[in-house]
Amino acid sequence: TNKYVIDSIPGDGIGVDVTDVAMRMVDAVAELHDFSIEWRIRDWNSDLYKKTGRMMPVDGIEQLATGDGIYLGAVGTPDVPDDITLWGLLIPLRRKFDQYINLRPMRLLPGVKGSMPGLESLDVVVVRENVEGEYSTIGGRFGTGTPEEFALQEAVFTRKGITRVAHYAAKIAASRNGKLVSATKSNGIIHSMPFWDEVVAETLAEYPAVEVEKVLIDALAARVVMKPTTLSTIVASNLFGDILSDLVAGVAGSIGIAPSANLNPERRFPSMFEPVHGSAPDIAGKGIANPIGALWAAAMMLEHLGETAGAQSLTKAFESALADGIATPDLGGTATTESFADAVRERLS
Amino acid sequence: TNKYVIDSIPGDGIGVDVTDVAMRMVDAVAELHDFSIEWRIRDWNSDLYKKTGRMMPVDGIEQLATGDGIYLGAVGTPDVPDDITLWGLLIPLRRKFDQYINLRPMRLLPGVKGSMPGLESLDVVVVRENVEGEYSTIGGRFGTGTPEEFALQEAVFTRKGITRVAHYAAKIAASRNGKLVSATKSNGIIHSMPFWDEVVAETLAEYPAVEVEKVLIDALAARVVMKPTTLSTIVASNLFGDILSDLVAGVAGSIGIAPSANLNPERRFPSMFEPVHGSAPDIAGKGIANPIGALWAAAMMLEHLGETAGAQSLTKAFESALADGIATPDLGGTATTESFADAVRERLS
Ligand SMILES: CC(C)[C@H](C(=O)O)[C@@H](O)C(=O)O
Ligand SMILES: CC(C)[C@H](C(=O)O)[C@@H](O)C(=O)O
Question: Domain of B306: which CATH number?
């Protein structure tokens, strides 16, 4: 019997609601598929920050490093600035564990009305660079409080960083329809994006079977709504990948269904799995959060651990619940988080 | 009779096709409304660049400074890198003439099937900051050609710059439904966007009648497709405004219909009017480019010049042509650029 140690960080708001469901469903899958999970629950969240001034303990990274993976709910709360909660937990984890790939698949799920009536299919994987780019600590503010005040924000793109995400995306594209779209803005952002284009083109030259098309982010955003079925695999920088993946999820019907895998493909460090949605304080604790993003992320975690059959069982279960018309309010249904979870459990095989 | 001197820069590709139509329609409007335009046609484009190494003459800015406005088609050609063509003409014009507001209205036009069947209305104005932010010349590359190579791209946000775009947007919002959405990413981009949020909030405090809501760019992109009717006026940074305005145009059915006014509100310098679409080399010269973005931009120019009745005549004419089912192929019709122009001319009043 394989046993995995997973650090679970429910976090804030509906992060707690959906992590609770996800852990129980994973345990149920584990029992059916003859493996087990030891959950190490971490109360690293905004409450901890308010008490200690830190989102995680000083040795938080060392603690997680001994596990097989990290499962994260969501982080953020209205009374603490988001840059503090996120840069105190989520982003350092992505970076310290070199989770340089953020994989964000999205499909039109059975029974789910997408935002575009008539759209019959959608199957897009966003491969987002996850540790560099537009999100950086370099920069700051000058002349705070004066009329002359300005802020600088440095984006950092490395050859190594672009090369490795391009390789990963090329392989994903090759395993799908062989078409890769690279999101860029090389006409407006003149130092980093032309470099991105160059390195993507050089890397993709090693994959003659993959056709790469570079598309400006503004035109690409429009294409997501105008011709979503022309898109299959997208490789994008940290910021562009963030925007595109939410946009694709919006087309598919709800941010609540979107999963995110923060991967260290070499497995030198634990990878981290999370729903894309935020902590949604307005609906936290009301029992109506959509657990699909969390369940799909859990399935990606099982896949990453090598428990492919278990991953499929979980995915099929929530798809079948949806196909049977069971859905939370954000998808137009009347199910609660808990009744949706019950429906999933009944359908596990 | 008022007379205006307008510099017309058709540029490249379909920029030439649509500028040709726009100038003729503006002249026809002028005749009907008793004003006149002296067009100074400038052949500043990629061909000029290939001959001279410059997109415009050394004293290009001085030449334009003497006019009442600038009308631009589109710039860009496959065999010259976009960062060169754009940073050689479009972006310096926006900056030298301190056109710090980029106004991008979008509506669901009569007869036009948006990308979202069932969507009944859409009326959004994106107020984009146009001279600072993520588009900057600061930055560069280190270790070119080595494995260690990296690129830095600095985003620059000033208190002055954010304040003035926020004021402008607040006034637009006040003249509409009183609701303003501010696009941000203050949880991921930690130096510039929290500053953006602060200055927007401070500025908007002077407009108690305007309700401001800050929305993360990823969630906002999703909201554009999920709940487009909840959006009216959006204020955004240079990059975010670029992405959002194309996205909204995508929802409304075509990038070919989107106009853009680059404004120096104080009128110390000429303002510039252009369709949002690019030079589309693939369809250039084929006579099928959609001239609506160009005509709408021309109407915004007339409005800016104070020729409000003329502006309305032009807008009503292309709307009425559309309502009568006349449309170019990108909108699902069979009209050519020219036959659409004919239909517009017949409807001018
Ligand atoms: C061509 C490009 C630099 C430009 C921009 O991003 O500003 C264009 O996309 C626009 O929106 O006017
Ligand atoms: C919370 C935020 C910093 C984060 C990001 O932008 O990476 C989130 O939007 C995501 O997509 O995981």
Answer: 3.40.718.10
